[in-house]
Specification:
single chain; about 120 residues; alpha+beta; four-stranded antiparallel beta sheet; 4 helices
Length: about 120
C-alpha cells in the first residue's frame, strides 16, 4: 500500500536577487491515519513545508507523491481536486471566514465534496 504522502529531497528556493532557501532536502513519509506534528522555531520553514505537502506550492527540487501519485505533472485543477478529496486544512484565524463558527469553517470543504450527510459532517468536524 502506498503512503498517503511521500517526499524525497523536497526543496523550495525562492529565486530572488539573493536566493532564499525555504525548505531543503526533506525526506518524509506519512502513512494513512498517522498524526504528524511539524515543530521548530519561527522562520525554520514549517509553513513552507506544509504548503508544499498540501499542494499549495510546488517544490524547486525533489519529488512529492500523494497516495503513490507523482504531483509534479499535475495541473492546478488536479492539485485542487487532490487537496479537496485527500487533505484537510485548518488555517490560522486570518484564513477563517468570520461569519461562520470554527466548526462550520471546517465543514466547508466537506460540503463541497458532498460525500457526507449533515450529521456526519458535524461529527467529523
Amino acid at each position: 500500500m502506498n503512503p498517503l504522502i511521500e517526499a524525497r529531497g523536497l526543496t523550495r528556493i525562492l529565486h530572488e536577487t539573493v536566493p532564499v532557501t525555504l525548505v531543503k532536502d526533506i525526506d518524509l513519509i506519512i502513512e494513512e491515519g498517522e498524526f504528524v506534528a511539524v515543530t521548530g522555531p519561527s522562520g525554520s520553514g514549517k509553513s513552507s513545508l506544509l504548503y508544499l505537502l498540501g499542494l499549495l506550492d510546488r517544490p524547486t527540487e525533489g519529488r512529492l507523491r500523494v497516495r503513490g501519485r507523482d504531483t509534479e505533472p499535475m495541473s492546478e485543477k488536479e492539485r485542487a481536486e487532490t487537496r479537496l478529496a485527500t487533505m484537510g486544512f485548518v488555517f490560522q484565524f486570518h484564513f477563517l471566514l468570520p461569519e461562520f463558527t470554527a466548526r462550520e469553517n471546517v465543514e466547508i470543504p466537506m460540503r463541497k465534496l458532498a460525500r457526507l450527510g449533515r450529521d456526519e459532517m458535524r461529527a467529523r468536524a
